[in-house]
Amino acid sequence: MNIVIFGPPGAGKGTQSNLIVKKYNLHQLSTGELLRKEVQDGTILGKEIDSIINSGNLVSDKVVGELIEKYLSNENFKNRLIFDGYPRNLTQAENLNNLLEKYDQRLNIVLKLNVNLNTIKERILARKSMEGRADDTEKLAVKRYMTYEKNIKPVIDFYKKTKLLKVVNGEASVAEISGEISGLINSIKG
């Protein structure tokens, strides 16, 4: 099974993805983690990514697509991926569909975590104090939220047409969100 989970930065995608990975034996594909790894490894691409992220902007679709294809082309991950925070725009959604088709795979469900800006700000600041991520500032959180909201509507419309989109209340507790997601996944597995 392949799953997409998305929501604004700080919505809890990573937390929920980790729970889904454990429960359904999937592999988490977090574009944020992949990008941070490139930065951490100090590659030329990593330095470019670092500059883009720290200015509050999003990395190009081409770069992200190349990172995604590495995993889709690997037999160990075939039909066992959860895409955490990808796709973020219509081009990426279309690219993901093309890549899935290319490697004889498909999406089974698309989960959208609905969370408001005030909750995002609280979560980002809490995450900063716990994890110490340099990109977790209120100013960047607001900018990333606004960028996300501007770009995501066409993605929502794209997945509504496929009948795969399920909206989840991202304002609830971690356990409540996880329960709702499990119910949705189990209903398509059944």
Please describe the structure with a list of short key phrases separated by commas or semicolons.
single chain, 190 residues, alpha/beta, Rossmann fold, five-stranded parallel sheet, 5 strands
Molecular structure report:
The chain contains 8 helices and 5 strands. By secondary structure, the protein is α/β, with parallel strands linked by helices. The protein has one domain (3-189): Rossmann fold, CATH 3.40.50. Strands 2-3-1-4-5 form a 5-stranded parallel sheet, sandwiched between helices. Helix 1 (13-24) packs across helix 8 (174-189). The longest helix is centred in the last third of the chain and has 25 residues, at 138-162.
